[in-house]
UniProtKB/TrEMBL annotation:
Protein name according to UniProt: Transcriptional regulator containing an amidase domain and an AraC-type DNA-binding HTH domain
Lineage summary: Bacteria, Pseudomonadati, Pseudomonadota, Betaproteobacteria, Burkholderiales
Domain HTH araC/xylS-type intervals: 223-321
Molecular functions per Gene Ontology: DNA-binding transcription factor activity; sequence-specific DNA binding
Alphabetized InterPro entries for the sequence: Class_I_gatase-like, Homeodomain-like_sf, HTH_AraC, HTH_AraC-typ_CS
Top-rank taxon, per record: Bacteria
Keyword terms of this UniProt record: DNA-binding, Transcription, Transcription regulation
Annotated source species: Solimicrobium silvestre
Pfam family, one: HTH_18
């Protein structure tokens, strides 16, 4: 997120180009991924005007042979952010055409992909060592790129100058997060009110179906391990206990967490407990000490330190922020 915040200091209008691969050759209305991005950004355009933001939408057929290079270059001229959007894997252009699109996108200061386009870029080697939010349904197709792409089951990822989103309804959270970074909380709140959105999900929230369905089918032991963690927040289990309960060695369990979740079991478990604690701080009247104990922390000091490291503020400051907002 930090590099992207630099756009907030721009005096010139922020230019965003959305490239949508339309399997209906330009006649389709677009899917949820496209609507989730375009609608919030258009609302900002209406509120702030062209002096602050210019959003262009370009519908491309799944065969780019009818689009010449000069037209593609016009799309990218002076653009700050270019995103390639695709909802369907079957509408993929050829690898050569994807490379052409990737080169176009990478000329912008910030670039990225949404939905199936994340896998397209990964397949042509454009996501090496980049944390990328891949839609859960496409993990079965991603085996060939797993060695060099850091594929994450999160809603979206902002890794340096590359931005990715799993698509679908998460596109709304993605767009609202970018709006907050570029124009601040007041503009974001205006768009949220217009869309009747009460809460913006963080990028590091997991795709729930990714855990329940993808892992349940392809990695049942990993799915079982995550379920054990979710069901044992207060009375925590050790990594060795979890490995034994799901029928894996500790090393095998750690390897699966690293490959499919990008982290170690102990770290994932800690983040689960801290997110639960944050929810309780905001949604309950339990004391901070009680919440720490309810989330498996043996002391208030341990809870406060871990919470501060994860979220950048102390539990007391989080609770105070809730009271101030109230």
């Amino acid at each position: 997120m930090q590099p992207f915040l630099s756009l907030a200091c721009s005096d010139a209008p922020i230019r965003i180009a959305l490239l949508h691969i339309d399997p209906e050759n330009g006649s389709g209305a677009g899917g949820l991924s496209l609507a989730g991005l375009v609608t919030p950004l258009r609302l900002v355009e209406q509120q702030l005007g062209a002096a602050r933001i210019i959003v262009t939408l370009h519908r491309l057929s799944n065969s780019l042979s009818n689009i010449d290079d000069s037209e593609l270059k016009k799309i990218n001229k002076n653009v700050h952010l270019v995103l390639l959007i695709a909802d369907e894997l079957k509408s993929a252009p050829s690898h050569d055409e994807i490379r052409k699109l990737a080169q176009l996108c990478q000329q912008a200061r910030f670039w990225g992909a949404v939905g199936a386009a994340v896998l397209w870029f990964a397949n042509v080697g454009k996501m090496e060592r980049i944390r990328s939010a891949l839609p859960w349904a496409l993990y079965a197709e991603a085996n060939e790129v797993a060695e060099h792409a850091i594929l994450m089951p999160n809603l979206f990822e902002l890794d340096g100058h590359c931005l990715t989103c799993c698509g679908g309804a998460a596109s709304i959270d993605f767009a609202l997060t970018l709006i907050h970074a570029m124009f601040g909380a007041d503009v974001q709140a205006h768009v949220m009110e217009a869309l009747c959105v009460e809460r913006v999900r963080n990028g590091d929230e997991r795709q729930r179906i990714a855990l329940q369905t993808r892992f349940g089918v392809l990695q049942p032991q990993l799915s079982e391990a995550v379920t054990l963690m979710e069901n044992n927040i207060e009375e925590t289990l050790s990594t060795d206990d979890i490995a034994q309960l799901v029928g894996l060695s500790r090393r095998q369990l750690e390897r699966q967490f690293k490959q499919y979740l990008g982290t170690m079991p102990s770290r994932y478990y800690l983040e689960l407990r801290l997110k639960k604690a944050r929810q309780l701080l905001l949604d309950s009247n339990s004391s901070i000490v009680q919440i720490g104990l309810m989330c498996g922390f043996s002391s208030g000091a341990h809870f406060s330190t871990a919470f501060g490291t994860q979220f950048g503020i102390t539990p007391r400051e989080e609770r105070q922020r809730k009271l101030s907002a109230g």
